Amino acid sequence: MHALYLGLGFEFTGGIGTLARAVVGILARRAAAGGGGGPAFDRLEVVTLHGPPLRPAAQAGIDAPQELLIRGCGGDRLRMARMVATRMRGGCALIVCEHVNLMPLVAATARRTIPCLCWIYSLEVWHGLSRLRRLALRRADCLLALAQASRRRTEAMLAGTAPIAVCYPGVADPLARPAAEPAAIKIPGPAAKIILTVGRLVRAEPYKGQAELIGAMPALLGRCPQVRLVVVGEGDGRPALMELALRLGVAHAVWFTGWQSAAQLDQWYRRAAIFAMPARLEGFGLVYLEAMAYGLPVVAADCDASPEIVEDGASGYLVPPGDSAALAERLLALLDEPELAAAMGRAGRARFLRDFTLEAFARRFTTRVEGIGRLPQTGEELRA
Question: I need a surface site. Which of 139, 274, 278, 305 has the fewest CB within 10 A?
């Protein structure tokens, strides 16, 4: 018997891509172990909408048994439908669907008796679903949300679809592996106090909080002239953000790095004093976990999933969304008191090690797979 993972493709960066790689790795290791409760499978098949016809999992950045191959469909949905239909025959024990946009394909090809899990994130559901996708979601036995806030918001919109469980994600501990060779990054002055933010810069999605951070910079520079905001990420929203920095007279203190490699991003995290992303409409925010893993205090918006990750006053601060003045006040508190910032960073790393490692995520996700059809009790998400 085999399990089938349906994904968009491993060419994509960002949180969904990171989560997808982790999930495939967990499923592949479970198949290789050949044990466990719930749906029994000893082989994993991975089919993606995008990507080349065939490649080893390692080439897609997945930590899985060497023999695992990824089958891509080059963006051809009809080809993917045929490939999935073929793999529904011959003893499929479980379907894991990476994105709601692929659920119509499952609904059209899979027998109702095959258990199906589908991940939900945020905007792909919150901006509204077509009638076809809404109906297709009824084919899932369970929807997996990344946080309680996402579950509540999605339940309010998708009455009558599959039950929703929470499965907090996790990331690999960057401090558990040997330090890489120093990456070539341009540091904004050896004495600079760096506030780091990481996220795509998309004009149609101005919710990551970069504009609010730039708006806080005049107040920050008035008290701490050596502060620098490092904005990691790329997208069509970058020109407007650069213009905002110029208009506010802080362009010299706002550094746009563009896309950065994993090694470069590692160096930025190690060099930063504070991580800040006062985002709205976040289904979770894996970058918060990355920052906590590096021992950075985190400043986030007090909305959506952020309060489930950042403990206000303990591992960082939560500020009202869209409020640059409140954001500046909290950032200045951390800049003015390095001991406080260091203590919050230590608390955040301790929380990461307790709840948000890749191993903790593997345990939670395995529990959801083995208990498909059973919703967890309140508070079970982190204990699993």
Answer: 139
Residues spanned by the domain of 349: 174-355
- The answer to whether the beta carbons of residues 241 and 251 sit under 8 Å apart is no
- What amino acid is encoded at 35 in this protein? G
What backbone torsions phi and psi does residue 4 show, to the nearest 5 degrees? -120, 120
pLDDT tens digits, residue range 339-364? 999 999 999 999 999 999 999 999 99
pLDDT tens, position by position, 233-274: 999 999 999 999 999 999 999 999 999 988 899 999 999 999
What's the predicted TM-score (pTM) here? 0.91
Question: Which tokens belong to 237?
Answer: 């929203």
Select from 277, 294, 308 the least CA-distant residue to 381.
Answer: 308
| CATH assignment of the domain containing 26 | 3.40.50.2000
For residues 45 and 91, state if they share a domain. yes
Same domain, 285 and 369: no
Tokens standing for residue 244: 């905002």
Q: H/E element holding 317?
A: strand 316-319
Please name the residue that has the structure tokens 């809404």.
134
118, 167 contact by CB (below 8 A): no
Burial 212-245 (b: 16+ CB within 10 A, else e): bbbbbbebbbeebeebbbbbbbbbebbeebbebb
Of 322, 304, 300, residue with least CA distance to 312:
300
Task: For residues 181 and 310, state if they share a domain.
Answer: yes
The total number of structural domains in the chain stands at 2
